[in-house]
Amino acid sequence: MNKKLSLLFLLFTFLFITSCEVVDYNKKKPNNFFYTKDLYNKVTSSENVKVLLFETNLHKEIDVTTEGVDTVKNFIENLKNESFISKPEDLSEEAPYKFFVDIDEDRYVINVYDDASVSLHPWDGVYSPDYINTSKVYKAYNLHKFSKYILKK
User: Fold this and answer.
1) First to last CA, the chain
2) Which of 91, 93, 109 is nearest to 101 (CA)?
3) Distance CA 143, CA 132 (A)
4) pLDDT at residue 19 tops 70
5) What whole-number distance in Å separates Cα of residue 150 and Cα of residue 145?
6) pTM (2 decimals)?
7) 83 CB neighbour count, 10 Å cutoff
8) Residue 112, class by beta-carbon neighbours within 10 Å (0-12 exposed, 13-18 middle, 19+ buried)?
9) DSSP tag of 24
C-alpha cells in the first residue's frame, strides 16, 4: 500500500511538472514597446475584439467597443519611438481610467493616469508594462480625453 501511494505521488508530481509552462522571469524585456506592438498586431488581425472602459473612482464599467477599437488602433498608430519611456517616478499608484481590451482569449490593460501618462500590459504579462508619454499624441486619440468624453455622455 505504501509503495502504491509513493508511486501515485511520483506520477502526479511528474504530470504536474511537465504540464506547467516554464517561464524565465529574469529574462529582459525585448524592447520598451513590446506589449504595445503585440496588442496592435492582435487588434488589427482579429474580428473578435471587445473594449471596456473602467472608471476606478466610481467603479463604473462601460462597453466602448464601437468607438474604442478604432480609438485604441489610432492611439497606437499615433505613437512614436520617443513616446515609450521608463516608468515615471511621480506616477500615481492608481489610474483613474482603465481600458480592458479583450481579443479572443487575451486581455490587455491600458491604465490611463492623466493627459500624458499611460501604461499598457497584458493581464498575465511577464515583463513590466510599457510606459507611454502621450503628451504629443493627437488630441482625438488621447485616451484620457476619450475617457472623459465617454463618461460625460
Assistant:
1) 69
2) 109
3) 11
4) no
5) 9
6) 0.82
7) 20
8) buried
9) -
- The answer to whether residue 25 scores a pLDDT higher than 90 is no
Q: CA distances (Å), 76 to each of 25, 89, 139, in order?
A: 27, 23, 13
DSSP classification of residue 22: P
Instruction: Tell which residue, 128, 129, 127, 126, has the closest CA to residue 112.
Output: 129
For 76-135, write each residue's pLDDT tens digit. 999 999 999 999 999 998 999 999 999 999 999 999 999 999 999 999 999 999 999 999
Higher pLDDT, 2 or 81: 81
User: CA 106 from chain center: how many Å?
Assistant: 9
Q: How far is CA 127 from CA 11, 23, 100, 132, in A?
A: 33, 11, 18, 15
Cell numbers found for residue 134: 502621450
Torsion 79-82-83-85 (CA) sign: positive
